[in-house]
Amino acid sequence: MSTAQLIALDLLATLLAAAGWVGAGVAAAARHARAALALLVVAVVVTLARVTTSVALATGGWWFAQDRVVLTGPLLGVAGLAAVLVAGPRLLYAVRAGTPGNSPTAVVPLLVAGYAGAAGLLFPLLVGYPATWGDVLVTVALVGVAGLVTWRVAGSGPPLWTFLPVLAMGLAGVGAGFATGADLDAGGGPTAHHPAGHGVSVTDLRGPTTPTPGGQVRRYEFTARTTTIQVGGRAVEAWGYDGQVPGPPITARQGDLVEVTLHNADITRGVTLHWHGYDVPAGEDGAPGLTQDAVPPGGEFVYRFRADQVGTYWYHTHQASDVGVKMGLYGTLVVGPPAAGVDVTLPVHTFGATTVVGPVDPPAAAPGTPVRLRLVNTDGVPHRFALTGTAYRLVAIDGSDLNEPGELREATLRLPAGGRYDLSFTMPAAPVTLFVDGDPGPRLGAGGGTPPPAPEGWPELDITGYGTPAATPFGPESDFDRGFTLVLDRGIALVDGTPRYAYTVNGRAFPNIPAQLVREGDLVEVTVANRGFDTHPWHLHGHRVLVLERNGHRVTGSPLWLDTFDVQPGEVWRVAFEAGNPGEWMNHCHNLAHAALGMALHLRYDGVTTPYHGAHGG
Ligand code: C2O
Ligand code: CU
After folding, report:
1. Cα(538) to centroid of ligand 2, in Å?
2. Are residues 457 and 521 in the same domain?
3. How far is residue 293 CA from its own chain's centroid?
4. Ligand 1 pocket, 539 CB below 6 A?
C-alpha cells in the first residue's frame, strides 16, 4: 500500500474511532446501554486498528507519523482506556440489570474519548508536521475544556475553577507557538558567518554585458500588456509579453549574451521576467521582493545573462505569478544549436477549461526527417503526453540530456508543472499524433484523415529507471555539508500575516518558513516529503538538482538533473545540489496557487543580502 493510501486509511480509521466513541456516549446518554456497549467495542477495535496504520505510516518516514505517535495516538489511548475502565463496567451493569446506564460517569468519559478522536482527525488536517510542544498543550487543553464543559452540562460537573489550569495550559501552548520563531535553517552546517548587512547585495550579482568570444548578443525588447487572444474560437482576456501569448520565443546559441529589456505598459500588478530552470546570476532572476522590485506600468528592467546551458527552458513573470502566468505572461527559451530536421517547441497552457499546445502547429515533416519536440508545461498541474504512430526517445528533461535513453512506444509521459521533456524520433511514413491528457493534439505528417484512437492504458514511464547510469559529480553516498528537510502539507498558518488554510512547509507558510542557509561550495542534500493530498512540483531557482532517491529507491537509469520534480502525495524525494551560484533564491512549489498560499521559502547564501523586502513569494 502506498503512503498516500495509508494516510487516507489512517484518517478513515480515526474518523470511525471518533464516531464510535461519540456514538457510544450519545447512546448512553439516550439510555440505550446495549447500543452504547456495542459502540464502545467498535470504538476500541478501530482505535487499535489506528495504532497499526500509525506504525505503518512511520515506516514510510517519521514525518508521516510524528503527530500520531507523540500526540494524537497517546491522547486517544489514554482517553479511550479511561472510558473503557470507567464507563465499561457501568454499561455492563446497566445491560445486565436492565437499567438505563445514562449516568455522567458513563457518558462523559465516552464523549471525552470521542473528542480525543476528533482531535486526532483534525490535527493532521489543520496542523500537521511537526507537532510542537505548543501544539501538544493546545490540543490537550482543547480536549480538556470540551470534556469539562460536557461534564458540567451532564449535571455533576467539577467546580468552575478546574477550568483554570486547563486554560493556562492552552495559553502556554499558544505562547510556545509564538516563541518558536527561527528564521534561518542552517541544515546542520555552520551558521551565518557574515553579520547582517555585511556582504554582497543581490543587486550586484548581475550578468556580464558581453557574450563569450565568438558569441552574439541576442537583444529583445518586451512590453507586457493586457490584450485579447483567441482560444478555441473564443475571445479571452489575457496578459502578454508584447501582447503575445505565449511571449516571443527566445532562442540563442551557447555562449551568446541574452539581453531583454522589459517594459510594462498596463499590467497594474507589475511584472518581471524569471528564467525558469536557467541558472542566471541572482540579480537577473526576476524574483520580486528578493532580487528586484516588480516593474510597474511605465517602468523597465534590463536582464542580461550568458546562454551557457543548452536545452529547453521557459520564462515567466514572477510577480503575482499565479495570476500572471495563468493570464499569459510566459514564453519559451531554447538554447541551441537547433536539432537537424524539424525542431519545434510546444508550450502547453490551459486557458479556463481549454488546454492549448504550442503557439503554432508543427511544420510538415517528410518521412525520414528527424523530429525534435520540446514540450513545456506552463500550467500548475502535470500533463500526460502520449505519442502515437512512432517509436521515440525522451532525450532531455528540464534542459539536461539523458544518458542513453531507450526507445519508447506506447508510454505515457507525465510532465510536472514547470517541467520540460524533449522527444526525438525519425518521421515515419504515417502521421504521428501527440496526445495531451488523452486528447489528440498536434499532428505531424500527412494531414487530414481521422485522428488515431486515443492511447488507452499505456503505462506511465518511470523516469527514475529510464536510460543508463553515468558518472555524476556527487551521489547518494556523498558527504553532504548540509541537509534540509521540507515536509509539505496543508494547515492553518499565517500567510503574509493573515491566518489561512495554507500550503505549508514544516507547518509554516511564506514568509515564516525559515530560509535555508548555505555557503558557496557546499554540497547540499534536500529531502522533500509530501504529507498532503495535492501534488507539489518542487522548484529551486538558480540550481539544478540531482535526484538521489524517490521513496527510498535510488535512481537506476540515467542521472536526472531536474529543476522541477513532482512530489506526489505520500512521496519522499531526496535530491542534492552544489551551492555554486551565490544569491538569494526562491525555493517553492510550482503549482503557483500553492506558492501564493504560502508554499515558498528562500535559499540564502551566507554573505548575500537583499535590499528588497516584503513582496510575496508567489
Ligand atoms: Cu518557474 Cu519561481 O518559478
Ligand atoms: Cu504545491
Report:
1. 7
2. no
3. 25
4. yes
**How far does residue 209's CA lie from ligand 1's centre (Å)?**
24
> Which pLDDT score is estimated for 384?
97
- DSSP at 202: G
Nearest bound ligand to CA 618?
1
| Paired strand residues for 355 | 350
| 614 occurs within a structural domain | no
In angstroms, rounded to a whole number, what is the distance separating the alpha carbons of residues 339 and 272?
30
Q: Ligand 1: distance of its center to the CA of 515 in Å?
A: 17
Residue 225, domain extent: 210-337
Are 367 and 441 members of one domain? yes
Q: Are residue 195 and residue 141 in the same domain, yes or no?
A: no
Ligand nearest to the CA of 376: 1
Q: 602 in ligand 1 pocket by Cβ < 6 Å?
A: no
Query: Hey, is 69 helix, strand or coil?
Result: helix
- For the residues of 227-295, what is the DSSP string, one character each? EEEEETTEEEEEEEETTBSSPPPEEEETTPEEEEEEEESS-TT-B--EEET----GGGS--BTTTBPPB
Q: Is the minimum distance from the CB of 590 to ligand 1 under 6 angstroms?
A: yes
The reply to whether ligand 1 has any atom less than 6 angstroms from the CB of 544 is: no
Whose alpha carbon is nearest atom 1 of ligand 1?
276
Domain count along the chain = 4
Atom from ligand 1 closest to the CA of residue 595: 2
Q: Is residue 116 situated within a structural domain? A: yes
Q: How far is the CA of 351 from the centre of ligand 2 (A)?
A: 20
Number of other residues whose CB lies within 10 A of the CB of residue 103: 18
- Residues 611-614: contacts with CB within 8 Å, 24+ apart? 611/201, 611/202, 611/203, 612/202, 612/288, 612/289, 612/290, 612/291, 612/292, 612/293, 613/289, 614/289
**371 shares a domain with 305:** no
Considering the domain architecture, whether residues 43 and 107 belong to the same structural domain is answered as yes
What's the 416 CA to ligand 1 centre distance in angstroms?
13
Quote the pTM value.
Answer: 0.95
Question: Tell me: the pLDDT tens digits for 156-183?
Answer: 778 899 999 999 999 999 888 776 567 8
Output the CA angle 363-368-372, nearest 5 degrees.
50
Q: How far is CA 367 from CA 360, 435, 447, 480, in A?
A: 21, 20, 13, 50
Output the residue whose Cα is nearest ligand 1's atom 3. 276
Cell 495504532 belongs to which residue? 51
- Ligand 1 neighbour 541 (Cβ under 6 A): yes
Which ligand places an atom closest to the C-alpha of 596? Answer: 2
Ranges of residues in the chain whose predicted pLDDT is under 50: 617-618
Are the C-beta atoms of 591 and 534 separated by less than 8 Å? yes
Give the pLDDT confidence score for residue 618 in this predicted structure. 47
Q: DSSP assignment, residue 199?
A: S
For position 248, what pLDDT does the model report? 97
Are residues 366 and 316 part of one domain?
A: no
- Tens digits of residue pLDDT in 592-618: 999 999 999 999 999 999 999 755 544
Evaluate whether 416 touches 405 at the Cβ level (below 8 Å). Answer: no
Ligand found nearest the CA of 598: 2
594 lines ligand 1 (CB under 6 A): no
